[in-house]
Specification:
Number of helices: 6
Radius of gyration: 23 Å
Largest sheet: none
Distance between the termini: 77 Å
Number of domains: 1
Oligomer: single chain
Number of strands: 0
Shape: flat
Helix content: over 70%
Structural class: mainly alpha
Length: about 140
């Protein structure tokens, strides 16, 4: 009888640990579903759709502030340096989402005109080259 309990304990120890808490992707899908239902069954002002980059900003901030459980487990097993190195792509992607949302938001809200992007990029590139040469 003791062997059967030991096997049971081994089986439960081998099962993957289920994470508890909120899922970021689940929250995003629920928000998008509610928005789709609101668009279909209600009359939203057109101005509301100018805020779609805010979704990218919120997901980017959430990704930067949230520390996944697997990173904490790596801290315990291999040390802080390994977990930081393996967590770096996730943080870089979160920064990209944040930057993309912040870049698109002024254009969708009408604060900047899309015709300005070309001259502004050329101006920024020229200033960058001048600054690098002066260093």
């Amino acid at each position: 009888m003791r062997d059967a309990m030991t096997e049971f304990e081994l089986d439960t120890a081998r099962r993957p640990h289920r994470r508890r808490g909120l899922s970021g992707l689940g929250l995003l899908l629920v928000a998008l579903g509610l928005l789709a239902a609101a668009v279909t069954y209600a009359h939203l002002p057109v101005r509301v759709f100018g805020f779609w980059p805010v979704v990218f900003v919120v997901v980017g901030i959430f990704g930067l502030l949230r520390r996944p459980g697997w990173v904490n487990e790596l801290d315990l097993q291999f040390g802080l340096q390994v977990s930081r190195a393996l967590d770096r792509p996730r943080r870089a992607f979160s920064l990209f989402l944040l930057a993309f949302g912040c870049f698109c938001l002024p254009f969708t809200l009408g604060l900047l005109n899309a015709r300005w992007i070309g001259p502004l990029l050329l101006l920024a590139l020229g200033l960058l080259l001048l600054w690098r040469r002066a260093r």
